[in-house]
Write a structure and sequence with these properties.
alpha+beta; about 200 residues; 8 strands; elongated; two-stranded antiparallel ribbon
Length: about 200
């Protein structure tokens, strides 16, 4: 696509219907982006502008191409540019990586899932443990991973209760169960208005 003279159209679809497209024309040292966009109910606006390219040498020979962010005042060398009014880098759009939006419970769940995959255990973090040691794994490694998993599982449970506890107190029992099942957690009524967490 970056060979001078190459011309290509990229489209994005939703439910089988094309919702956006951009034409990319390659020239020496740059690509020309041509597309239409609008914000909210505003009129469609035509855009056509260059995005300059740069290269860096690769260790095993050859070179790698990079975009220079076309946003005014940026010019940062990036591998990916993101669409909007104009195409620009992650920093210009203030986009965060998924891991940057995680709280302690999300991070613990991700780490617990990684351990479950390594142990060959099924399901989510609240499915419980004790599904057995994988063949060939040392017992010491298995016990350490189980301890780590239990620690992460505890953080996930506390985070879930902190996040949804106040909301759950206002709901009837069947609504509690419905919400919990959507999160792979099962709540059962216990001594009146209290709830107990049950894995599985």
């Amino acid at each position: 696509m970056l060979t001078p003279g190459a011309n290509r159209r990229i489209t994005w679809s939703r439910h089988g219907e094309v919702v956006a497209s951009v034409n990319i024309r390659a020239e020496l040292g740059r690509v020309i982006l041509t597309y239409r966009h609008r914000s909210g109910g505003d009129e469609w606006k035509d855009e056509s502008y260059p995005v300059h390219l740069t290269t860096t040498p690769c260790h095993m020979g050859g070179e790698r191409h990079w975009f220079l962010c076309p946003a005014r005042g940026c010019g940062k060398r990036v591998a990916v540019i993101y669409g909007g009014g104009i195409f620009a880098c992650r920093k210009c759009y203030q986009l965060a990586y998924p891991s940057q939006r995680e709280d302690a419970g999300d991070r613990a769940a991700r780490r617990a899932h990684r351990i479950r995959d390594r142990l060959g255990w099924p399901g989510g973090v609240l499915e419980g443990g004790g599904w057995g040691k994988p063949k060939g794994m040392h017992w010491r490694t298995y016990e350490r991973l189980c301890d780590d998993h239990d620690t992460f599982e505890d953080v996930v449970n506390r985070s879930f209760i902190a996040r949804f506890g106040p909301m759950l107190k206002k709901r009837r029992v069947f609504e509690w169960v419905k919400l919990a099942r959507n999160r792979n957690v099962y709540f059962t009524p216990w001594t009146g208005s209290a709830l107990s967490l049950k894995a599985g």
